[in-house]
Structures are given as structure tokens and as C-alpha cells.
Amino acid sequence: MTAYKAYDAVRRIAVLGCGTIGASWAAYFLARGYDVAAWDPAEGWKQRLQAFVDNAMPQLQAVGTATGAPGRLEMLDTPEAAVTGADFVQENATERAPIKIELYRRIDAALAPDAILATSTSGLILSELVEGIASAPRFVVGHPFNPPHLIPLVEVVSSKVTDAAAAEWAYGFYAHVGKHPIVVKKEVKGHLANRLQAALWREAFNAVVDDLASVEDINAAIAQGPGLRYALMGPHMIFNLTGGKGGIRAALEQFGPPMASWWETMQRTPAFDDELKSRLIAGIEAEMGDRTIEDLENERDTRLVLLLRMLKETEGER
Amino acid sequence: MTAYKAYDAVRRIAVLGCGTIGASWAAYFLARGYDVAAWDPAEGWKQRLQAFVDNAMPQLQAVGTATGAPGRLEMLDTPEAAVTGADFVQENATERAPIKIELYRRIDAALAPDAILATSTSGLILSELVEGIASAPRFVVGHPFNPPHLIPLVEVVSSKVTDAAAAEWAYGFYAHVGKHPIVVKKEVKGHLANRLQAALWREAFNAVVDDLASVEDINAAIAQGPGLRYALMGPHMIFNLTGGKGGIRAALEQFGPPMASWWETMQRTPAFDDELKSRLIAGIEAEMGDRTIEDLENERDTRLVLLLRMLKETEGER
């Protein structure tokens, strides 16, 4: 880690791409006191970003993320200008390889020689995006979860050419600013957490295909049940507790064989055909009732803030 | 629903099998003011049950489950005695078919003609357990989640011979006592919620096999990320919100194809061999540090109580 900047010396963070994910990152870094240099190619992005930040700031105060005075938000007209002088870049361009490749080419020369860039890509393989980019050894995946200003997880993944020290720096920096980074050791589709989610989604979609339960009941099968535990501990730790006093060893003995027999009946992959789509849409609309997407987002974020506060307040009891 | 007792007339509930699940059910029903007639075949069960109930009661008060004065706990020496005079039976015998079959044969004649029995079985197929049982039309699956006195979900499943009105009665009764029942329309291994969990576990075990991340990081990949959302809404509603303002339709269009491409790389089922077992055990022991299983259970339950309270208190904002 010798070549890179001390965390306390980081002042300015560039946020490239200010859609839902980028705007949320911008709010987070501002709340932590960093100056943010933002850029986005879309019409009207400056107003939307400002509105997002204004809405997120009280949440970040409530959840205890905000530390002292917020940083200064600067909105720039080119990505080159945004990254100039930046110590760290969080890139959130549209999730399409050609768009990211073009952006990397544009900013390559403007990046400071010790600046680290992290891409929020949820599905692309970084090694496939950085050919011919001089700064590529300082590029990593830093994949957050929606909404990034509230959800702590960041997956750090190296490309084939990432400098190990740069990846270590990024991991440490996310921890330094209060996120919960993890290291995904290999480049695979969906990194780690999205693969775990996609596995659950596969069976949730299969349950709709098979008409095993209503869409609303499938939602409740998680949110009123195991989902409550997933907010408190991960799958392997939950498995550990299903073993009673015998812990993980007893769980493996007792639940390994039945689970393997369930898996035998879970080999199908659903097709997103019209039948599945229309059942899903009808089920979701029935469950939403007169609530809008915005209502649901507000409900989620209000509760997330309270959940995160509770988890922080009970941390001492661990 | 004509033939069965009015919910307000239910007074006495038999709890058969008082291990972790049964004891938790007993505490729940007592807190709701029902008299509980308990039975278990194990040595020393009466002390353990009393201790469990004493420990759970303050949690049930904190979470708002307890309503007025608790019911009376009676501990009986035979299952026949326990079910005699019971309006409802929650059966939690050891998860092995011959044991449940024998128990059903023993209690069949002692059950009141309008009593409903629900089995907590997590994996067995009820239709395969009730051959020759006269009361079988009044038997359903009522599968809870650990710990049942805190987690709201109950999966209601009918066997091939279950009277539709009996299943409806059981569903309504769980709702009446404050649980969140769902209807699983077909008898499949693991019902619904355990299949969703097992799907996530499959990829979580594969991640250990592939050394994609440490066991602790795999846990964090859920608990610090999507797990926080699973406590607030189910998988299809989360999918709906990944579509931004375009909702479920936009999500299907935008994330359907990439997810299908991830699934292509998620076709393997892990084997519980010595390598996987020893990595899991080492990873869990490292993450536990000096915490015991009991410490983890207490941490989970303390936080579950606070989480459930928060969800209840923000219900009005839905």
C-alpha cells in the first residue's frame, strides 16, 4: 500500500454517472465530509442530483453516517474535469460495456497517478473493460447495494491487471468511510451477493411458474420469515444456529442430507415468458394497492434507517 | 368453515413435542392467553420447557404479542392426555416419518371431533404420514420459522385428504393469534420458504467450494447487503423496486436477461464432502470468536424483538 495516498489525505472524490446509484454515492461521500466532483451525461441531472442529496442528508444524519460538516458538491460538465484532482473515483455509468469502455478512455489521461477508480458495475467483468487503459492497475470493482447511501455492503473485485495494493487500498478506504467491504476473490458474473440473490430469485420465479403460492405470499415467505434473520446474520451463521447447541457440525449432519434432496427438485431455470411476466405484474400490482413506487421506496428507506440504527445500537452486545 | 369452532371459543391448545420448536410454540400460545397442554417423550423436558417459557415471556411482552394474562401451562405424561379436550394441536415431534406416524396413531381416537392438528414439519410430506388416520381430514402442515415465538411466518399446506374448510380454519386461526400465515398450494419438499432459503444456501455453499470469498465475507454479502432489504420486503417486491420508477415491467426488461445469464453459471449442486465441511466449520469458528451458540441466539433474539417492534411501529406508514 506504499504508493497510495493516506486515507486521511483524501479530500476530493469524483462521482461519474449520477443516476440512482451515483447520486446515492455522492450523498454518502458528502455526508462523510468529502468534496464531491460529479458528472453525468443526462439532461437535467444537476437538479435531480441536488434533490437526491437534499433528501438523503437527513437519513444519513439519522443513521449516524454524517460526520461533521458535509463536503462541497461541484457539478461538472465533462468527466475529465470531474476526475481532475480527484483522489478517488466512483464510476456509475450505464451498465453497458461500450459506455464504460469509452468513459475509461476519456478519463485515463486526466486521472492523478495515485488515484484509485472503483466501478459500481453489478454484472460486468472489469477485465473485459480495461484493455489499453494506462490507469487500469488502479481500477477495481466497488459494487454497492441499492440504496448505496444506506446499505453498508461493498464488493471489492480485482481485474486481471489490478495492482494488489490498489485493491487493498480500495478495501481499506471503504472501511475507513464506514462501509462494509468484502473481498470477492474471482471475477464471476454477478460477483457474490447478486449470485446469492439470483439463486433465491430463481426459486421465487419458479414458485410463480408452478403456482406454488400467490406473488404476495411468496414475498411474505421471505419478509415475514427467513428475511428477518437475513438482516441479522448471513446464511452460514444462520445454518450454524439451525444446529442447536451442536452448531454447524450438527447442522451439517441433520440438515445437509434433506437439503441435498430438496436441491434435486430445484434444477429448473424459469423462462421470462409472457405468462410469468403477466402473473408477476398482476401479483405486484395487487400487493401495491394504491401505493406508488415512490411510496414503497420511502417506506423502505424509512425502515432501513431505523433498522441500521438498531443494528448499530446493539453492536456493543456482540 | 361451518363445522369448526369459532376462534373466540378456542381455549386449550396441545403442543406435542417440546424441543426448540415446540417450546417456542408453547410460549407463544401461553402469551396469547391460551391454556397449553404440553407433552414430550424426552427425559427432563418439563424443566427445559419451563425455562424456555420463562425466558421467552419478556420477549413476547416486548414485541407486543402478549395479550393480557398468560394461559395455564399443563405438562402431561402422554400425548393422548395432552390432546384430550384440546381445540387445536401443534405437533412438533422429531422430524422422522415413523415417529410422526406412530404419534398420529396414538392420538387419533383421543382428538375431539372438531379439533384441528397442524404439524410443524419442515420437510416431510403430510400425505405420506396420515394413512389410516381417521382424523386426517383435519390435519394440515403449519410450518413455522425458528424461533416460532418471534418469527411471524407460518406456511399452511394441505395433504391430499385435508378438508378444505379445515385448512381455511387453520389459516384463519394463525392470523387470529397474530401470526402471518401463507398458503402453499402444493405439497413439495421444503414447502416454499425453505426452498427459497435452500436455493440461496446452495450458492452460498458453492461460494465456499469455489473459494469465491471467506465464510465471514459470504455471511456479510447477505447480512450487510440484500439481507437488510429481505427483512422489509420479499423478493418480488424488491425486484419491483430495482426497476426504478418503471417498476416490475422495467425490472423484467432490464434485469431479466442478465439474471438469466447468471443462472447459466449457477447449475451446480455442492456435495457436503469433508473439504466443504472443514472450510465451513473453520470459517464459522473464526467468525464466532469467543461467542457461544447461546450468545449468538441471544443476540439474534434481542435484535429480532427490536426489529419486529420497529416493523410494527412503522406499519401505519404503509
From TrEMBL, chains A, B:
Reading the lineage from the top rank, the first entry is Bacteria
Q: Does the keyword Transport apply?
A: no
Please list the GO biological process terms of this entry: fatty acid metabolic process
Gene3D superfamilies assigned to the protein according to its UniProt record, in alphabetical order: N-(1-d-carboxylethyl)-l-norvaline Dehydrogenase, domain 2, NAD(P)-binding Rossmann-like Domain
Q: Which GO terms describe its molecular function?
A: NAD+ binding; oxidoreductase activity, acting on the CH-OH group of donors, NAD or NADP as acceptor
Q: Name one Pfam family in it.
A: 3HCDH
Key words of the record = Oxidoreductase
Q: Does the keyword Oxidoreductase apply?
A: yes
* Annotated ranges, domain 3-hydroxyacyl-CoA dehydrogenase NAD binding: 13-186
| Domain 3-hydroxyacyl-CoA dehydrogenase C-terminal, first and last residues per copy | 190-269
Protein name as catalogued: Hydroxyacyl-CoA dehydrogenase
Q: Lineage of the native species?
A: Bacteria, Pseudomonadati, Pseudomonadota, Alphaproteobacteria, Rhodospirillales
